Task: inverse folding
């Protein structure tokens, strides 16, 4: 196995462990919100996208079953970002239809990030599948553990498990911020998401931030310097 392929394996396993630990929080909070253990586990098995799951139980906790339509809407809005990931991952996961069908369940933030952190096609494929399957197994196991041990664990939010998942994601993103263009996209999306989060329903800030990132990239703001409409690098004369 080549160096980059081994690196994809290591990244996938590391991110899987860090992200799966956060599943304990979801299991415990889901039960505290009024769900049964089996309902919390079914959410992780079927929905399997952390942001949407937390949005769902957050709305349920505040409004009960009467808030179910709002909870479903919030979960759908947050999960909509996975559609964009699927478009990008389509050429990565494999050429057969069953590869692409199976990949739909594992196309999440972390599997996409690990895949795109590498340049070799085989390493990208390894990173995607190792991360996606690893988190799916780990997340469901820790969801069950959190749901069963919720009362024993106390306030799971005090453990800061969400910080572990965010740190792992940032570690994958950081090496890609090498150009002014990439930094501009990241900063613009982060500022917009942070500013809109207090005032909009869950999911909307993420989608608007993604749109801002696309616009920044499309218009090449803070991209390569140009002189008289010609790239200084000379790559325009291919």
Result:
């Amino acid at each position: 196995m080549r160096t980059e392929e081994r690196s994809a394996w290591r990244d996938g396993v590391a991110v899987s462990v860090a992200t799966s630990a956060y599943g304990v929080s979801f299991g415990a909070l889901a039960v505290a919100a009024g769900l049964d253990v089996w309902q919390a586990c079914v959410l992780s098995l079927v929905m399997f996208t952390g942001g949407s799951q937390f949005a769902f139980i957050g709305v349920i906790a505040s409004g009960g079953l009467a808030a179910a339509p709002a909870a479903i809407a919030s979960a759908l809005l947050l999960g909509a970002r996975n559609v964009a990931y699927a478009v990008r991952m389509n050429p990565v996961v494999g050429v057969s239809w069953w590869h692409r069908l199976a990949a739909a369940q594992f196309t999440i933030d972390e599997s996409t990030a690990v895949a795109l952190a590498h340049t070799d096609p085989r390493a990208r494929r390894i990173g995607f599948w190792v991360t996606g399957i690893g988190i799916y197994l780990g997340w469901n196991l820790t969801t069950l553990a959190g749901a069963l041990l919720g009362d024993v664990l106390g306030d799971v939010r005090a453990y800061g498990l969400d910080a572990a998942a965010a740190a792992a994601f940032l570690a994958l993103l950081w090496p890609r911020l090498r150009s002014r263009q990439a930094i501009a996209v990241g900063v613009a999306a982060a500022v917009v998401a942070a500013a809109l989060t207090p005032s909009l329903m869950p999911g909307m800030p993420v989608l608007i931030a993604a749109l801002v990132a696309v616009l920044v990239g499309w218009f090449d703001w803070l991209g390569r310097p140009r002189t008289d409409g010609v790239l200084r690098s000379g790559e325009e004369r291919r």
Remarks:
- Residues 226-238 have pLDDT under 50 and may be disordered.
